Amino acid sequence: MNNAIDIPWSQLSFCSVFVILLIGISLYESLRLEKTILIGSFRAVIQLILVGFFIKLIFDYKQWYVVMPILLVMIFVASQTVIKWLKNPVKEMYCCALISVSLASAFSLLFIFLLVVRIPVWYDPQYLIPVAGMIIANGMNGAALAGERYKSELEIRVPEIEMLLSLGYESKMASRKSRQQALSASLIPSLNSMMVMGIVHLPGMMTGQIIAGSSPVTAVKYQIIIILSIAATVALTSWVFVSLLDKKFFTPYHQIRYELVNPGKRKK
Question: Which residues are listed as membrane-spanning (predicted)?
């Protein structure tokens, strides 16, 4: 099979039409997102170009002490992004995000590369960086959805939770419905993708491998690994994150910490 067709920068510039379309819809519907769209598009292009050249250097210089700092930066940035979706986050919540993203990502990556793919060198950037990027990013998105939904559910259910606590329920039981809603919400994107995988949705990794000249069967095998590991990572990251938040939103005496759950309402 031939290698992927190279795209001249002049032709790539035609993609600016998509940005113009986004801005047009925002202006027509008065969404006031034009600035965000421009900044986001500019950042995405610049960051991807820089990362492309950077990764090429990493691929040429295969050393674990070069690859590991990259993974650590990815995890730290992902953890910071998770708590941005929470209203009035505190330092403790960042630690929860960091622990959940780190544990879930490490578990998935170790499982994939030690038992499934079995690459000769565990820190081979050609495999580790792209797969880690997908795993960490999806775990980040899942945790962000779960954390935001969990906090919203707690705010809505404050009277219900207070009643259960007053009846002698532990905080973990009183907040169970909120956790269930949060975890279900975090899994919806992954489960939807799995339902239509190969019929409606042709994943990026599989498409990229096929365009690059890999066998479609090989591309499918890798995609099966990725889609299943992503779903598991999202579930694990979200579950750990929500479980840790649960301990932060309640005191050891099973009382709601209103300053975190609902800053506008403080217990008298």
Answer: 6-28, 40-59, 65-83, 95-121, 127-147, 182-202, 222-245
Q: Specify whether the CB–CB gap between 259 and 89 falls below 8 A.
A: no
Contacts of 200 (CB under 8 A, 6+ apart): none
Q: Structural domain boundaries of the chain?
A: 1-60, 63-261
Q: Work out the burial of residue 224: count CB atoms within 10 Å of its CB; fewer than 13 is exposed, 13-18 middle, 19 or more buried.
A: middle
User: How confident is residue 264, by pLDDT bands cut at 50, 70 and 90?
Assistant: low
Would you say 205 and 221 are in contact if contact means Cβ atoms under 8 Å apart? no
Mention every residue, 6+ apart, whose C-beta is less than 8 A from residue 209: 218, 219, 222
Instruction: Determine the average pLDDT of the residues in 31-58.
Output: 87
Specify the higher pLDDT residue, 38 or 262.
Answer: 38
Q: At CA 141, angle to CA 242 and CA 248, rounded to 5?
A: 20
The residue type found at 141 is: N
Handedness of CA 190, 86, 96, 239 (dihedral sign): negative
Q: Residue 197: beta bridge partners?
A: 201
Contacts of 257 (CB under 8 A, 6+ apart): 248, 249, 250, 251
**Residue whose token pair is 């500019």:** 42
Cα 43 to Cα 8, 10, 26, 80, 186, distances in angstroms: 20, 19, 19, 18, 26
CA atoms of 183 and 237, how far apart (whole Å): 10
